[in-house]
Amino acid sequence: MVNLFNLFKFIKQNGLCILLCFFMMAMVTVRADSTSTAGTEGAALFKRISAHVFQIKTAKSADAPKSSYGTGFVVNRRGYLITNYHVIASIVHDEDNNYKAFLVDGQKNFEAKVVAFSAIHDIALIKVDKIFDGELSLYPQELPVGSDIYSLGLPEDLRMAIVNGNYNGVVRDGVYERIFMTTPINAGMSGGPTVDGKGRVVGVNVSYQIGALNITFSVPIKHALSIMSTVNMLSGGQEQNLQYAYSVIEKQLEQIQNSLMQGILHVGAGAGTAKEIPVIAKWRLIPLSDTLKCWGKNITSEKKQFQTIGHYCYLKNAAFLEVGNYSGTFEIHYEALENISLSTLQFYHQVDEVLNKTEILENAYLSFLKDDSLTKYACDENLVVTKTGIPFRVNFCLSGLVKYKNLYKLKFKAVSLRKGNSYLIVRGNFDGIGRENVFRFMEHHLAGIEYKE
What we know:
The chain is of the alpha+beta class and 453 residues long. The chain has helices spanning 4-49, 85-92, 222-228, 242-265, 344-368, 435-447, and strands at residues 53-59, 68-76, 80-83, 100-105, 108-118, 123-128, 148-153, 161-173, 176-181, 193-196, 201-208, 216-220, 279-280, 283-284, 292-300, 306-315, 319-322, 325-327, 329-339, 378-385, 391-400, 408-416, 422-433, 450-451.
């Protein structure tokens, strides 16, 4: 017979443990049920969708080893597939016609032609001479944050795979849009479909963040629908020749430039939302667009003679052109050099030394940079006084994009004359800027700067 007094005493002494045990058992049960549900759903989706997803490779011929690969999926059974632009970009830029794109279906390879693309959104529409059994359903609406989503593709050239994660909304950086998700995609899955629990395609796998754990991105499917609307799929689509492709890319880069400049020049005036106006030391900077990611950093010299206070901002996305070549992005850096214990002359020499070290590295980089896609850098220097009365020595260099005659890479540096115990150094880069916007870009990032005693 059980002694009730002893039983109650045991529960009182060990009640917390008992409750925790029950709680942990419940959590395990819920997790097991959740995993089981996701696994069942994933298995059903894979069975239904994978037949319409294929590897896309570039190679010299159908039987030759692939030089690159990704994934594509059927959007029209008449032979049309969506993939990433960066998967087939080498074909678009192949002036010697050495490489072709192929769809791999088991042991068969079907040559693919590029009929439309967007370098802005990293999307391409390709066509193969094959009638498919079906096509995937496209769903251009945003999902509730936290929704289960699945990505399909061929990771690391292994085999077709499906991975599960969550939808975390759309991240917008100026003209660029990406679905932020937590599906563990890997190289080779680029261009594959991102689908919801009903198997509807909501995005196109595009990238993962290096050094992060399962921070991945997908292009909203509405951008695929946009380029699909430009093609008459009943007629078979027209393959884009090299010169026409370059003109398309140039127009798209100009579109990016115009959008970015509009946001830069009109922050807070309806075209862009401003961050809080940054202040470093006694320097009050200008309003910056909230599309920029900014970081601060303070460094004190080894002997505690002067301090560098930095504010570094950059646009997180860019347009892929070809391997190692991006455009349509910019960054801006501000650094205040503050005197702590040096005399005026010593501080001047210290600042001069810092600048000379930087200039030596920059000049070496510009002189020895060999890039067939760029013209040689041409540099100039001016002394300018801002509307707030602050003099800057401005040095800037331009390099033209060979294939896109109206666009340049800009690098500039502006150094203030000493104010109090401080100098301000401003550095900026803009990849894909028109000559008419070069001075507007530099002037904007200097004009409103103030020094408060």
